[in-house]
Structure formats: structure tokens, C-alpha cells
Fold each of these.
Amino acid sequence: MWQPSDSITLPLGDWVDGFVKGWLAPNFRGVFHAIGWPVDQVLQSLSGFLHAVPMPVFTIVVALIAWWAAGRGVAIFSFLALLVLDLIHVWSDTMTTLAMILTAVVFCAAVGVPLGIAAARSDRFARILRPILDIMQTIPPFVYLVPIVMLFGVGMVPGIIATIIFALPPIVRLTNLGIRNVQAELVEAAYAFGSTPRQVLWEVQIPLALRTIMAGLNQTLMLALSMVVIAALIGAGGLGLEVYTGLGRLDIGAATEGGLGIVLIAIILDRITQALGEQRDATAPGLLDTLKSLFRPGRPGRQARQEPRQAA
Amino acid sequence: MTEKLSVKNLCKIFGDDPDAALAQLRAGRSKDEILKQTGMTVGVQDANFSVGQGEIFVVMGLSGSGKSTLVRMLNRLIEPTAGEVRIDGEDIVSADPEQLRQIRLKKIAMVFQHFALFPHKTVAENVEYGLKVQGVPAAERRRRAIAALEQVGLEPWADHRPQALSGGMQQRVGLARGLAVDPEVLLMDEPFSALDPLIRRDMQQELIELQRKLKMTIVFITHDLHEALILGDHIAIMKEGRFVQIGTAEEIVGEPADDYVSAFTQDIDRAKVFAADSVMAEPQALELSKDTPRSALERMTELKRNALYVLDGDRIAGVVTYRGLAGATSGHGGDLGAALIREYPAIESAAKLYRLYDLARGELPVAVLDDGRLVGVARQGDIFKQLAAGAGEAEGAARQPAPAGA
Ligand SMILES: Nc1ncnc2c1ncn2[C@@H]1O[C@H](COP(=O)(O)OP(=O)(O)O)[C@@H](O)[C@H]1O
Ligand SMILES: [Mg+2]
């Protein structure tokens, strides 16, 4: 049976190949180099720092931070987890991975929060941004690994770039949501007293959206962690590489050690950042309220505080 | 009284093409017709009023009548579609963004229905907010915030979060936040509507006292006619985006412009709206030095009165009654002073009628005074006539659909 492809070929692959290799890569090498450069700088300093800190000092400091932010249970867990990571000899890989994901998160926050703010202030920008974020969240990361390698080469930096693309959407979305859900009357009050838009943003909107923004940061962090193994495919080192090479050699021992490291780091970071978010002013609308309000009829977020308060 | 705020032909239309809707409105179409044909909502239509320095101007109307839209156009939280708003002659509608910001910083403050306190700031920081955005140094603005909190009796709560306070206290903070910037005009959008009735009454009293002290110009929004009558020097009744009547409390209750207004006013306690001067009659006083018991009796017969006040120059010497004089003339011929009653009921002309009930119960007419001078006399019959005047109209109005939820 004849089918169209017998007679006609749509050479999409060739086009893309030609576009990326023949045009984008040679003409914009400088641009991609410039994008990679700050990422590399942040990574180098974080990595240098984390590898320089002695393991016992690092463990104790993390345990103390966990105690302050999330209480005793998380502190004990963090202490033991880091101890285990050292005992199974993946400490250095752990620090490499940590440097990598922290770098990715720093850039996600640096790019994502301003984008979220811009989206909250302009419906039009939000409409443009939304499908882009949808695409970023639905494309499997394997799809953009190849162009990234072509444009950035292999190594840690392209791995981090892929991680940033994958982990960026939640912080943008939740920053947008958090700011939009600040009670309209509060924003009105701020303007009524003569605030500039910038003052409204810093004095009212960001502080009240902070809890939601922190929840976005937490999600971004978790997504970044889930990219660790995939980034190892294009030359990023650390725990992900342990797992990847373990997989290649069917070395279940090494793969398990790397995998355990990723899981333990994920739990520690998740608990600490979650607790940091909840410590924020209890009166700011929480993530749950915020999400719930989206499914209620009427204007989101306005219902929250209307009940008369009869405390004191 | 100097004019502080003046509003001319102020309109707001919500929708895509407000100018087209405005043209239809000017051509005489109604709010409903415009909504049906174009889908646009007429928020406020041709509001005209002016508020004198130190006056409270109250806008009363049901929910959805456009009150919030009106008050928000005064500081342009909502952009007017057409019209003028002037403070001290300076047009706000045509101000550029920076001028507008300066006006909001220095001249107009606002108090909100649901308080709109910033939950992440302390009470003092909330009160300081207007000063902070003005760029006032921290120590100075703290001092002024505490002073404003003292005026509403909340300085002990300065460093608490607003959520720790009751509704009434929170709105006092909202009021202090407005007072702290020392505004020339204070806008209040249903500030007491979210409070319990008892607390609401306290807050009304407190506002009246503050107003007496600070002499601010206030635009006050409410859906409660009682509140409007208590607070307003002038009151505008709003319906579907338009003013149906503007006047003093006595004018609104005494001469409702239409059935809509009288439906509101019918169950108002007129004794608390009308003052003594609304029921007083000409004093027709006698003069101690000129009048004799005989001339006094003749005057009473002529005027059909049972008692008349007697003046000694500017001062009230006392009151004489027909019965008292009739006895006096039959006995000895001459002196008005002998029949003079020196204990008589008296009241200030601005006092409300309910304070007259007890005074008017005796047989003597009540002397109505203005700065100690006799300006009229109030008799029991006239008081009851005034109080009953609403009843007839009320029966007529009762057949109209009553405004729900007023
Ligand atoms: N942003 C808006 N968009 C469209 N219509 C509005 C908007 N704000 C208010 N309205 C309409 O304008 C009218 C007056 O509203 P509002 O001023 O809030 O009334 P009030 O404060 O007296 O209850 C209502 O019909 C309301 O639905
Ligand atoms: Mg309103």
C-alpha cells in the first residue's frame, strides 16, 4: 500500500540540523559563551567553597541550620544522612552535585522571580509566558539535550543550563500567583497613600507573596535534583555520574550509592526549604489557600480575610 | 465656609468604549438600557457636589449604587470617564502621575471598609506607611505614628500585629493611618460597615469628636441612613449611579425628593434628626419696661397663646401666663413683674427634638436660645406635629417596594 512518505519526504531533521549547526552555532557562539560564562563563575565559586569546607564542619553547620529552620527531627536526620554519605565514600560527588543544583537554583531564582513579577503586573505578558512555561514543563529534557550540547558543548555548564530550563517554570508560576493573590484592597491602600509602583511591589506585594514564592523555590529545587542523572548524560559530574556509569556497567553497588546520595540530599533540602517557607508570616496567604482559591468561583484570594476578627 | 472639594459632572463607565456609552447616557438612555445594549456598566453618572472646609459629606446608597466607585474617583484609584474633581481649585483629573502621587501623599488619605491593614507590618508600621512613602525619616515618622495612635487610644498596641486586634480596634488603626499624614481630605468607604452595631456607634461618636478637634474635610460613604444622618453635615442619596437628593439631614427627612428617598426615611427617628429650631414659633416676647398686665393679656388673646416670654433688654426676664396675669389684674392694676415666672424651660436651637420631650411636658412653652438670646418658643403641639409629619408620607411610601437590605 502506498503512503505519502514513499513519494515525498519532509526533511525536518535536516532543516533543524542545518539551522542549529549551520547557523545558530557558528553565528551565535559568542552569545552562548556569554550565557555560559556567569553560570560557570557561580559554579566554580560554589564548588570550590563546598569542596574546601571540611566534612565535619559542613555536617554540623547543616544540622544547625536544619534545627533553626525545621526543628530537632530534621536536624538529626540531616546529621545522620550526611554521615552516611561520607561513610559510603560519595562525599566529594555529593558536594559536586550540590554545587551544581545550587547554581541552577540561583539562576532560576534570578531569572524566574523577575519574570513572575512581570507576569503578575501585565496580563498580556502572562498570556505570552504561559504557553512557553507549558512547553518547558512538558518537553522531556532529553529533547533539548542535543541542541544544548551543540551550542554549549559538554560538561557541567551545559548540564546546569538543561537543569535551569527544566526547573524554571514553578518559580515563575508561583511568583506570579503569589503576587496576583495579594488582596486587592491592600494594593489599593498602598496606592492611595501615594506609593510608587515600585514601593507597592517591595512594601506590600513581595512580602505578602513571599510564602508562595518560597514554595515555588522549593519545587524548583526538587526539579533541579531530579535532573542530576540526566545532566550526567552530557558530561555533568557528581552523584548523577555515579548512577549513570553504574547503569552502563551494570554496577548496582555504585548506582545505589549515587542514588541514595541524591535521595538523601533531596530530603534534607526539601525539609529545610519547606520549613523556611512556612516560617514566613502566618498571615500571608499560604500555598494551599492560594491554590484552593483558584478553584473557587469569584476573584481569587479576596475571600481569605473577609470574616470579621474578634480577637483580643 | 470655604469650599475644599468640588466635583462636577463626574462619570464612570466600566467597559470597552466608555465614550460611546457616555454619549448614549447624555442622550437620555438609562443605566439598564446601556447595560443591555452595550454590556457596559454605568458606575457613576453626573455626580455634582462640593464640600466645605471642615465638613462631613456623606454619600448614602444601597450596595451597587456606585458609592465605592465615586469615592475612588476622588483620588483616582478609579480613573473617571468624564468630569472634574478639584481640591482647593486644583484639578485632580488632569494631574499627571507625579502630581497625582503628590496629592495622594499630602492631601488625600483613605480609610477602607475591610480595614486594608498590612498584615506583615506592626500597628505602628501600618500607621507610618504614608509617612514612609513620603520619605520621612524613621524616628520622626515613629513619633508621628504614635501621636496618631494616641488620638484613637491605641498607642499601647503600637508594636503588635493588626491581626491581634478586634475589628473595631483594627479600624481605629486604619483611621490613625489616615490621620498620621495630616490629610486635608479624608475619604472613608463604609469604614464602619464591617463592625458590630454597638462598636459602630462608638466609632461614630469617636469620629464626631475627632472631627470636632481636627476640623478635617471628610467624604464618608455608608449604606446606613442612620449613620448618614448622625454624621453628615450634608448628605447625598445615591441610586443607580446618580444622586437623587443632596441636603442636610433635616432636608432629607423633612422633604424627601421622591418615593425612593422617603422609603428610606420613613422609619427614621425624626426626633433625632430635627432640631429645636425646626419647630419653634416666633417668640413674640413682651418687654418688661413697656408692657403692662393688660397689654400682655391683649397680646395673648390676639396671638391665641397661653404664655409669653418677657425680655429685659436682651436678657430674658421670665415668662408670664394667662392664668397668672388674670389673677394679677383683678387684684391690683399695675406690675408685670409681679406675675413673672423666673423658672422656665430653655434649650439651644441646635438641640435635637428628643431632648425637648421632657421640657415641653409642662404648661410653659420652651424658650429656644441661640447664644443665650431668645430666638423662638417651642410648644408641645408643634413638636408632635413635626414628629408626626413623616407618618403620612410613610404610608404612601410603604406601598412602594421597600429598598431591601438598607
Ligand atoms: N471594575 C469594575 N468593572 C465593572 N463594573 C464594575 C467595576 N467596579 C464596580 N462595577 C459596577 O459598578 C456599580 C457600582 O459599584 P460600586 O461602586 O462598588 O457600588 P457600591 O460601593 O455602592 O456598592 C456596580 O454595578 C458594579 O457592579
Ligand atoms: Mg462599596
Amino acid sequence: MRIEEMPATIVAEMVRRGDLSAVDYVSRILERAERTEDRVNAYITLLKDLALKRAEEIDRAVGRGEDPGRLAGVAVAVKDNIAVRGVENTCGSRILKGYRPPFNATVVERLLMEGAVIVGKTNMDEFAMGSTTETSAYGPTRNPWNLERVPGGSSGGSGAALAAGSATLALGSDTGGSIRCPAAYTGTYGLKPTYGAVSRYGLVPYANSLEQIGPMARNTEDLALLYSVIVGHDPRDSTSLRDSGAHLARIENVDPAKLRIGVIRELVEEPVDKRVAREVWRLLHKLESMGAEVDEVSLPLVDYALPAYYIVAMAEASSNLARYDGTRYGFRAPGATWEEMVVETRTRGFGWEVKRRIMLGSFILLAGYVEQYYVKALRVRSAVRREILSLLSRHHVLVGATMPIPAPRLGERVKDPLLLYTMDIATVPANLAGIPAVSVPAGIVDGAPVGAQFMGPPMGEPLLLGVSKLCEEATGFRDRVV
Amino acid sequence: MEAVIGLEIHVQMTSLKTKLFCRCPADYRGAPPNTHVCPVCLGLPGALPVVNREAVKKAVMLALALNCRHIAEKVVFSRKHYFYPDLPKNYQITQFKGGGGAPIAEDGYLELLQGGGVRRVRIRRINVEEDPGRLVYTEGDITSSPEVLIDYNRSGIALLEIVTEPDLRSPKEARLFLEKLRAIVEYLDIADLSLEGSMRVDANISLPGGARVEVKNIGSVKEVEKALSYEVVRQRALLSRGAAIGRETRHWDPLRGVTRPLRVKEEEEDYRYFPDPDLPPIPLPRELIDSAVAMLPELPDARMRRFVEEHGLSRELAYALAMDKRLADFYEETLKRFWAPRLVAVMLAVDYLGFLEKNRLRMGEDRLNPDLLAKLARLVEEKVITPEQGKHLLFRVAREGVDPVEIVEREGLKALRSEEELRRIVERVVEANPKAVADAARNPKAVNFLVGRVMRETRGRAEPRLVRRLVVEELRRRGVEVGE
Ligand SMILES: [Zn+2]
């Protein structure tokens, strides 16, 4: 097994035992990045020197007989909307160019405490708004499986770095599918945690009430390992759950014979692409043959979930993005007055998709419309949650295609916002409901992977990780670096 | 012509240790610019607010003290959006009724004692919100300074916003209301409102026939009365000339004592309020409110009533003490050491406050304390010195912190009470001032002059009223009849 394909669990174990030098391993990952970045563009910032220095420290600690932690030496890629102290934090936007946060996100603190080596900040759709990583101001990321195609988004850089072998683990964030979508398209495993399980402190907000930071990895054990490090209550985040903790990262031992799976009809039938649906069914039939009970169920509110999601997300986004005005940090355009400077900065600093969502979000929150749109969307949101929880009372997990289409070609979707938005049809319900969901590789279509998404009850991560493990055993799809 | 006045008051919760949503110290006054800041109050991307529970508790206490009939079951914070350089997130975290949000309390009232009657001023709502940063103009003001600096030390300080219904009828009533509110805020240990900028008021005022005019950002209680009086005069003059008064916003210039129109926006701004998704609603269970009721201290009105009923103070004296918590505490501390309510009340509310004002001092910046004041009161009460001497001695004690008993002993200041002795001094003075004696029949000032002379001879140790009687008697004895 090549070093860049090695699971994180093994890297950490070997580094801790002194059987693998963190410096050798990290150098190899960085070389790999150097070779692939020209084509893939997974990173906005590569932290070559910092990563090597950190790896040296890890090796020295091991040499002194200390235990650097559960992620000892492991190369972790961090999405560029998560604050790492002193490292440029662009969110894929020109407006944050040059902004270096003076603090670490809570998840970054936790990574560092467990001995992780942060190798870089990964590319993303601008402010996480997109499903293809094409709206980044730093150029699109390409799918390592098929360079003509997108890696999904918005955490496309994180997924691509895993598939390219330029990272062993990656953090993404998921507002409406931004972890699960790139996981599906890059042949990786991605978990969107229960809302509140992982601290959002240090995550640059897009839509606060929907999003979570989550782990991405090339196999289930790695996914659980990274999750176990970042999960847990954080007093700095008021939406953080008190009873969150590492117990949520356990991989439940799921007996397939006792597993009841509900297949959401709307997420495997038209308009879902037939070839994608076929791969999902292929996986489900394998689970069935292992003894699982697979029934079709219906989630009729799916059609309302998407508009409700976009209303909530855009409203919150328009508010969150108000602070980027050139006054305190990041990009500043010249202007004769403060007002002029602000207008010019925002005009030049934001891309089109971001501006569109700010405009729509601002409109939604206007005094005359807030009840008509925002408050109504919140009602749909509660209804979606109720409907999903009711299905989950009869089935352990719900499943469907992660993405309704195979990985699009670059430029194919991003120009038409409606086409772009409908890509999220399967992923947004979990964000609206605040429940955990995992995307696992299901097969290959058009030379790039597609995924199946399992949703579970609140705090049901151990079950989802167990199901993920079953799928991994069923498909044998793991540790794939292309 | 009665005015219709409503107030919107912002009170900084200066008694809190930290800001409303972060752990930065709340005491920013005098700190170098931008030193009491952190990612949260600078609004850095990804930093998250955490509510200071103490601020919520204080707001509930105020709501109870202001008789609010409706206290929210859940505390919800909303975002109010507008672009301004002192606002690091370009939205302010505040409270708002709508879109799922609500003020922490609504529908209260405050009673004012007006000439024997009681006037009820309704409170529309109370909000908890964050203060923005502060703009610093390097030269001149907002209109003339070539550059502006921003100090975010104030950013995120906890504010209470109290909005009244338009129930006030005169500038004086507005002042009385604010004095009462200030007293309550101090009794609840929410704020020290003597701190610069800790209370800011926006006032709405209209006269019959005119539209509502808003005067923004008035810095103190006294200034509110002045600004509103100015508006009454200005609006009355306009109306009497038949001119129209349109809705406008004005700014109070305390240096020149005038209000001036502010640049008006063409349309009403839409603040796009919605509940802050970073701050889940905080439940306020009934039991918590009940326990807050039990914790409410005695409030100014009750204290004043007690001073009248149990201490025998006049209403005016009781009011003057009760409206100033520290003064009232000082008073009661002194009484614990020596019981002479009326004497101590006068010494504090009249003599001591006069001393502070004359020397431009704030309480605590002088050296008087309840121990010293009790000794002083005892000297007067037991007639060792005269009240007049007591007053002079109080000034000295406040200035130097000396023990009044020792001073009286050392400097032989005991009151001159022997009429015999005093009469001899009076005779001597009258003898020595024939001109004043000659004038005394026509000019009462001549009598005052003679009394003054005697007082000087006795170094203030005599009772002025007694001296006066002796002087008049002496003059009469000499055939000079003086009108009383
Ligand atoms: Zn702070």
C-alpha cells in the first residue's frame, strides 16, 4: 500500500509507535500534492513549511516517549471556511483575501490536541454557496477521478484532496449537502453530524441554523476517528448540544439481519438519474442479501424542502455576509467615502452566486415578506422534520441517492442557478431536520463515483457509521486514491 | 399647551463584569482604544456569541420593578441590520417583536408623585441589546473631521432599552421620570449611571397641532429637560406663527443649548429583523421569575415612604434621599451609629450635597463617612456645637477626614450658650459700631451687620438666632426700635 493510500488509523498507530516518521509521511503527502495540484486545485493554501515543522515536533514528541494523540502525524486538510490561527481564511472569496484569523476554530484546537498535521486549506464554493466548487474565486477544483468533471461541493477541495491522496483526512462543512455531495463524487465517506454535535465556533457562517462541520475520509474507521476528535459540547457555541461527545463516534456493530432500511422513493426515482439510481439499488440489494429488510417509503415533502431550505439559507446568508465591508479585514476597494468604499468592496469582492443569495436573502427578510417567506419556510422545516422522524420511527435508517445526477462536467450546471439548486434535493432534508446523514460510495458513473445517502435519527451517528461499515464491506470500496 | 412626550432610554449595564456576548471586561472606560476586544465583539467571521446570563437576570429584575405585566417565556435575540462602521457585524443583536422574536418584557408602568397625586407612565417594552463601538473624530465632529477612528472597546457592552408610551406631559415630568428610573436602575445594581455615556435618551415630543419630533442621543437627565424645554419653546413659536411642524429627527447640541435638524433619510429603513440563529431561545420559567421577585430589593418609592412614616422626614427630604441610592445608604448607615433622622437627613441632602456640588466632587471622592457623620450629628444633637458650626465642620470633615470630636476639643469650638457671656460680647460690639446702631432703625441690613460682627467675635460658636435676639434687645435698650 502506498503511503498516500494508508488509512489514518494505521498512520496514527505507526507514528505513535515510532514505526513511521511523521516527517517522511507528511513529506510524501506534500509531494503528492505538488504533483496533483496543477490539475486538481484542491487547495487554496498549502501549508508546506508549517506542516513539516509540525511533523518534526510530532516525531520529537514520540522520540521523547510522549503520545502525540489519536491523530499523531496524520495529514488533515481543512476547508477554507474554518479558522486556523494565522493562516489565510478566504472561504473561496476574494473579499476575504488576506484575512488571517487570530484564533483557531474549536475543531482545529481539537485536531491539534490529538497530534494532527494540518496540510492546507481546501478550495470550496465561495462562502460554501454551490455544489460544484466552481464558484470559488481561486479557480474550480477538478475531480481527480475524471478531470473533466466537478468534485461536487461546496467542500470539493476536501473531497478532491482525499481522492488525489494529498490528504489522509479532511474536514468539510455541510449546510445543505456540502460534505455529502463531494463525498459522493470523489468516492469518499462523508458525515453530516446531528445539528449541534460539533462546535461551529470558527466556522465562517453561511446559514447558521443548518450547517455543521463534519469529517470526510476514505473509509469508515477513518471517518469515525476524525469524528471522535471533533465531536463534543463547546461552551463557545450556544447551539452546541450538551450531551454531545465521543460516544457519538462509535461504530455500532449493526447486524444486517435486524436492520430495517427505508428507501425514499422520491430519491431513487425520476427525476433522479437512472444510472445513479441503479448503483444505489445495487448497493441496497447487497445489503438485502446480507439480511437487511429494505422497504420503499415516501417523503412527499421533499418538493417543499428545497425551496424552504433556500429561503432559510439565503436569509441567514444575507445577514451573515453583511460584515464583509472592507473596514476591518480582508479585501478593500478604494472609495472617497466610507459608503462608497463599502459598496465598491462588496461589488468587487463577492462573486455572482454570493450576490444573488445576498439579494434574495435581503428581500426575504424585508418587513413585508419575512412572515410570507421566512416564517413560512420555518413551518415547512418543522413539517419536514416531523415527516422524517415519523419515517424513522418505523425504519432504522432512510436511504436514497446522495446526488440526483452523476458528477457534472465543469460549467455544465453552475451557470443556471435553478439547475444548480436542484442538485441538493436529496441532501437538504437532513439539514432542515437537523439529523445526521452519511454518504457512502455506491458505484461509478461516467468515470466518477456516485454515492448513497443514509439518514438516521438525531444522535444516530453510531448507527450510521455502522451502516457505513456494512456498505464498505458490501462494496469493498475503500482507500481509493486515483 | 400640553406637550406629548415619549422616551426611549438606553442604559448600559455597567455593573456586569463582562460584555453581553463575550468575556471581554465590561469596564472599558479609560482603557486604550481596541484593547477590550476579542473575535466575538469584533464580529470576526466564525466567532459566536454566548449570552451573559447575568444580563438577562438584571433585565428581568428591571421588568419586575417596572411592573411589566408581560415577561417573555423565552428570551429571543434578533438581528437588526444596518451598515455603519461602529457596528462590526453590520447588524446589532437586539430584541424585536416579530418574525418569532419578542422583547424580554412589555406592558409595564412607573408611578410619578406629582404634587399630592400619582401619575402613571406606561412602559411599552424593555429590550436587551448590544452597544456598538465608538467613532472617534480626530478633529472637530462628524461634519468636519477629515478622518474617523473606530474604538470597539464599547462594542458588545450590554444595554437595556426602555421605551415608554407617550404619557409624559412636560419636560419636567420627563426629568422626574428619568430620575425615578435612574434610581431604580441603581437600586437593582444594574448600573452606575453617573458614568459618562451610561444613559442615553431619545425623546419624542409633539404639541397639539404639530407632528412628532424626535430628539436623538441626549446624554443626561438634566440635558433631557433642557432639550425638551427648548423644543417646547421652538415648536410653540412655530405653531403660533401658523407654521407647520413636520415629522423630523433632531440632534441636541448641549454646548449651544439648541436642537438641530439631522440629515433625514428619504425612506424609512428596513432593518430586516429575524431571530439570531446563533442564539437559541433561553427559557424563562415561571419559578425563575418568582425567585427574582423574592430577590427584589426595597425600591425607591417604598424606601421613601418608610423614611416619611418611620423616620418622620418631610416628603421632599425623603425623596431627595431615596432617589439617590448611595446617599440613602449613607443616611441609613449613619443612623445605625446615631439615631437622629431629621438632622442627619438635612446634613446629607442639604449640606453635604451642597458641599459636593460646590467642589465639583462625586460621592466617594471626599472623606466623609458614616462614622464621622454620626459623631458630628451627635455633637449637634447634644448641643455641644450649633447647627451652623455643624455645617462648617461637615465641610472640614469631608475635605480632611478629621474626627469632629477631636477638633471641637482641640480648638475649643464648644457652642457659646451662656446668655450672660454673649450679652457682654453684644454690648461690646454695639458700643464699637455707633454708625450701624444709628442706621439700624431704618436699615435692617445694619442689624445683620451687627449680628455678623458678634458671630465673628465668637468664632461661629453662637446660635445666630440667639445672637440676633440679644442684638435687638440691646438696641431697644438704647432706644433704637427695630422691626422684626
Ligand atoms: Zn469581546
